[in-house]
């Protein structure tokens, strides 16, 4: 059996244990707990930041889950959201599900914001795919950092550390260097604080200068992956305090947008090896195309989806969908390149896109998406109509998401895409042995597919695709930060602690 390509990467996870315990940078400032005053028609929060029994900031709400209409400072109130143009802070929080944010907002954690909206991630549900969609940066080299490069698999450690599959990082004013992700997944609590501290200090400097600021946080994914819902709540508490701190420091002259790239499924349960399953069914699995190889099955991140490269897509998909844990397999019809076939335990369907840009779904046998169309009838809708109609389904907006996955999104597109069912995940055998997973993502399922978006500028549509977020922000008079490349500092190498080398200046 070929060596696990993630072995080099997983070895990096040992570095924090051996070298970097306690070496994360300074965390965020936090914010004082409020003194509450309630009346029949108003909830009031007073924030005394210097312990002089006088509030430096006061928020007034009609209800605990309502967005404040004004923010009061010592020198008087200001309207909220602010009138006129002000700088815009965007924070992308990896992996936080909509449902967790909705509960936090209803509990009063985010008084500066209206209720969150559901933000639907593309399929496969991976950070690089989602943020490439947000910033219109397709095609990507692969679904993740392990992909087919010519006739053989890439080196995932090299491609990850070089951000080869992460073009969106060039649009961030802050994102942790990829090597730092290994440290963050090894010890997520202090490294999340490190990230938020950097965003606070460097973001405030930019915002005070009148510049908008875009930041990405990986620590939320690390916490959620290892601690599940409680990990996300820990992170959101800190993010809520950061939003209050930024608003106070700028005396309300800022707009803040929070989003996540996708959600998290809190029941990963059982790890499966797709390559082994296909091998047991008689297929020859390798790491490069060539005689005697039927399929290449990259196994890198611990996720609930997979890409398969093969010259026998129908045969491989028909076999793979029978394996334990596999819920759907999608492939372009070899005989009809304008049709995507969807195979599931409950039958087979065809998906196509019309010349007018509409998405069509036809059940062939059974109904793999549970849409129950009349026999042999094609259901055709616009992308946004599919999203609205199926947002509460087990596989939201699956029809356009499946089609789009095969529509020039990857330089060398996988011939088969696999979506696992609840309770299953796949990926590197070596990483699986080093990390205990409490949550994962990747599949078409709701839990991992739906992130969130909310902005102080006003309420967004209740559900939207992440690629439609820039237009939705324009509807509340905001421009998405990061539409042009952010500044990226060079990491200096030298005799300083490795933690500083990893995270200096970005």
Architecture (CATH level 2) name of the largest domain: 3-Layer(aba) Sandwich
What portion of residues belong to β-strands?
Answer: 15-25%
CATH class of the largest domain: Alpha Beta
The CATH topology of the largest domain corresponds to Alkaline Phosphatase, subunit A
Low-confidence stretches: 14-22, 486-506
Q: Which percent range fits the helix content?
A: 25-40%
Report mean pLDDT, rounded to a whole number.
90
| Class computed from helices, strands and strand pairing | alpha+beta
Using DSSP, what is the number of strands?
24
| Cα Rg | 23 Å
Number of domains: 2
Tertiary shape: globular
Task: Please give the order of strands in the largest beta sheet.
Answer: 13-14-15-21-16-17-18-19-20
End-to-end span in angstroms? Answer: 39 Å
- Total helix count? 17
Q: Sheet with the most strands?
A: 9 strands, mixed
């Amino acid at each position: 059996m070929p060596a696990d390509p993630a072995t080099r990467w997983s070895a990096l996870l040992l570095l924090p244990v051996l070298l970097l315990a306690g070496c994360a940078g300074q965390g965020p400032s936090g914010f004082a707990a409020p003194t509450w005053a309630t009346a029949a028609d108003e909830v009031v929060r007073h924030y005394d930041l210097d312990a002089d029994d006088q509030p430096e900031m006061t928020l007034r709400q009609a209800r605990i889950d309502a967005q404040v209409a004004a923010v009061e400072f010592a020198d008087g109130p200001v309207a909220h959201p602010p009138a006129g143009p002000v700088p815009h802070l965007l924070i992308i929080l990896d992996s936080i599900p909509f449902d967790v944010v909705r509960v936090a907002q209803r509990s009063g954690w985010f008084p500066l914001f209206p209720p969150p909206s559901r933000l639907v991630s593309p399929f496969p549900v991976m950070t690089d795919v989602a943020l490439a969609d947000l910033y219109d940066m397709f095609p990507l080299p692969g679904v993740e950092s392990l992909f087919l490069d010519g006739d053989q698999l890439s080196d995932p450690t090299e491609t990850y550390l070089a951000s080869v599959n992460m073009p969106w990082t060039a649009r961030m004013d802050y994102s942790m260097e990829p090597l730092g992700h290994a440290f963050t997944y090894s010890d997520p609590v202090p490294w999340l604080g490190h990230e938020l501290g950097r965003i606070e200090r460097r973001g405030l400097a930019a915002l005070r200068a009148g510049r908008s600021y875009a930041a990405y946080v990986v620590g939320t994914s690390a916490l959620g992956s290892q601690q599940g819902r409680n990990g996300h709540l820990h992170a959101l508490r800190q993010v809520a305090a950061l939003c209050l701190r930024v608003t106070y420091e700028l005396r309300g002259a800022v707009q803040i947008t929070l989003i996540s790239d996708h959600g998290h499924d809190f029941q990963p349960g059982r790890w499966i090896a797709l390559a082994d399953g296909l091998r047991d069914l008689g297929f020859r699995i390798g790491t490069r195309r060539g005689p005697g190889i039927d399929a290449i099955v990259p196994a890198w991140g611990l996720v609930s989806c997979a890409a398969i490269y093969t010259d026998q897509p129908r045969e491989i998909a028909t076999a793979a969908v029978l394996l334990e844990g596999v819920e759907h397999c999608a492939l372009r019809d070899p005989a009809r390149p304008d049709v995507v076939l969807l195979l599931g335990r409950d039958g087979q369907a065809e998906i196509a896109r019309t010349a007018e840009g509409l998405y069509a779904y036809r059940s062939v046998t059974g109904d793999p998406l549970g849409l129950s169309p009349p026999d042999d009838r094609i259901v055709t809708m616009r992308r946004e109509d599919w999203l609205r109609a199926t947002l509460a389904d087990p596989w939201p907006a699956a029809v356009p998401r499946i089609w789009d996955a095969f529509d020039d999104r990857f330089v060398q597109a996988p011939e088969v895409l696999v979506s696992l069912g609840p309770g299953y995940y796949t990926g590197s055998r070596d990483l699986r042995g080093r990390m205990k997973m409490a949550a994962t993502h990747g599949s078409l399922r709701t839990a991992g597919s739906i992130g969130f978006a909310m902005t102080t500028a006003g309420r967004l549509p209740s559900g939207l695709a992440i690629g439609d977020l820039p237009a939705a922000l324009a509807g509340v008079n905001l421009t998405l930060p990061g539409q042009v490349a952010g500044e990226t500092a060079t990491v200096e190498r030298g005799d300083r602690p490795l933690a500083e080398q990893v995270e200096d200046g970005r």
